[in-house]
Amino acid sequence: MGVLAIFDAQGTWGKTHVCDHLMHKNLQALGVRWGRQEIDAARRVDADRLVQSHALWGTSSVERIRRVPEDGRLQYHARGALVVHWVQEGTLLAYLQANDGHVGVLCEAGEWLAIPADLAYALDAGESPDLDLLVLSAAGSGPSEIQNLALHGLPSHDAFVETMLQMTGYAGEE
User: Fold this and answer.
1) Domain ranges of the chain
2) Which CATH superfamily groups domain 3-144?
3) Of 92, 102, 85, which is closest to residue 37 (Cα–Cα)?
4) Which of 21, 34, 39, 81 would disulfide-bridge 138, Cβ 3.0–4.6 Å?
5) Are 23 and 2 in contact (CB under 8 A)?
6) What is the pLDDT along the chain (174 residues), one digit of tens a residue?
7) Burial class of residue 7 (count of CB atoms within 10 Å of its CB; 0-12, 13-18, 19+)
8) Cβ atoms 85, 119 nearer than 8 A
């Protein structure tokens, strides 16, 4: 289940959405798309599925990320072309720059986030990341510029998940 949370410039947690319609509406304002695509657990993504995905998103290269830095934070950046982060296993928190703050999007296995060119964002996979991620982009569309996304005050992946569990009444049920 995807989760979207809106944060102001000071990092104060605002509205939170788990409804697909409201997630789409809020992300559309940033030019971002989010969705789900079934994953065959035995085969993950096969060649046919990748060809279909490249056709859908206009991408041509793919990178698989299975190991992330010890702290789970990935690089902050904007790319010169659309980039799609498709979670195969685990969870990924993406912070997207918004005019008046940030939008946090938590994606689970099978969910994808298509981020337009030049939108600054940061990724966080948690303190003990168990992540298998496909990053689809146009060939040669590496980071256009590294940007300091000023994440001060925004919750880490693990704190974000814990807050969501508390908000929904699932905290402590493990």
Assistant:
1) 3-144
2) Jelly Rolls (2.60.120.10)
3) 85
4) 81
5) yes
6) 789 999 998 899 999 999 999 999 999 999 999 998 876 655 456 666 677 777 777 777 777 777 655 655 665 556 677 889 999 888 999 999 998 899 999 999 999 999 998 888 888 888 877 888 888 887 655 544 445 566 778 998 999 999 988 887 766 655
7) buried
8) no
User: pTM value?
Assistant: 0.83
CA-to-CA separations, 29 to 42, 77, 115, 150, 152, in angstroms, rounded: 36, 19, 12, 21, 23
Q: Which two tokens stand for residue 57?
A: 């998103």
- Cα angle value 104/37/154 (rounded, 5°): 10
Contacts of 48 (CB under 8 A, 6+ apart): none
